[in-house]
Amino acid sequence: MTGLGDVDSSIPNVARMYDYYLGGYHNFAVDREAAEKILAIFPDTPAAARTNRRFLQRAVRHLAEAGVRQFLDIGTGLPTQGNVHEMTDGKVVYVDNDPVAVAQARSLVDGLDRVSVACADLREPEALLADPAVAGHLDFSQPVAILMVSILHFVPDEAHPGDLIARLRDATAPGSHLVVSHLTLDGVPAAPAAAGQQVYRQSSAPIVPRSKAAIADLFAGYDLLDPGLVWLGDWRPDNGDEQVSHGYGGVGVRAIRS
Ligand SMILES: C[S@@+](CC[C@H](N)C(=O)[O-])C[C@H]1O[C@@H](n2cnc3c(N)ncnc32)[C@H](O)[C@@H]1O
Fold first, then answer.
1. Tell me: the pLDDT tens digits for 204-221?
2. Average pLDDT of 52-75?
3. What spacing in Å lies between the alpha carbon of 196 and ligand 1's midpoint?
4. What keywords appear on the UniProt entry (predicted)?
């Protein structure tokens, strides 16, 4: 983890905390301490993180089997296995605003022409789309699946996540898709919910859980594929998949009317 000039190891980083939940090694003491506080409140967080990864993998596999050949994965994170380019032989762009995640993605796909990596921010969609690693790699006249898996709960309401999604959606062709998973605290008692949010308030990206209805609104301009917006473990599960879900997930196809 050396040679990454922009890395801030003084505050917990959400990508590295997630890496710790998944049993990875791309994290510092400050990340592990914050992650352990979350585990004390929500001990099933590692299982929920695995369920989220399986949702991502099933969604990409489904789209690849349906003929989608281009994937824009925004908020790639640090996982080392089961990544998007392993679920498809189509084109993939990995995007993250965290330099450690970007470096990890670059090292994973080094030498693979069909995969590119951009350091860009979802909150600046025009710059993201104009990044040479995006604009030079994907053909936006053809369908693109935009993946926002476990990232939108790091985008506060003030940043207008629905507008950000719409700006990306409007850059894509008919037949394009949106894949979203999103943390919720629906059904979680107020005390642990507040304690968990307090931990993330000290991190690189405070967390913004949303209700099922608010997450459904993020699919404006898309028609949800079956089974709709559901607990992550319930989206077309394979036999043996874990069912511990801390969020909802869905896959939409760009509506003709948008
Ligand atoms: C919890 S990880 C999710 C990783 C992966 N998508 C998954 O679900 O397994 C969230 C990722 O989103 C990234 N992220 C958060 N806010 C972002 C933003 N505004 N722009 C780009 N990436 C962002 C973080 O750096 C982190 O790598």
1. 999 999 999 999 999 999
2. 97
3. 18
4. Methyltransferase, Transferase
CA distance 21 to 56: 16
Joined tokens for residue 54: 């399986």
Query: Residue with the nearest Cα to atom 23 of ligand 1?
Result: 75
Pairing of strands 91-96, 115-119: parallel
pLDDT value, residue 110: 84
d(CA 69, CA 166) in angstroms, rounded, equals 21
Ligand 1 atom nearest the C-alpha of 78 is 27
Q: Which two tokens stand for residue 127?
A: 């710059």
Q: Does pTM top 0.90 for this prediction?
A: yes
Cα separation of 50 and 90, whole Å?
24
Atom 12 (ligand 1): residue with closest C-alpha? 75
For residue 206, report the distance from its CA to the centre of ligand 1, in Å. 12
Check: CB of residue 180 under 8 Å from CB of residue 56.
Answer: no
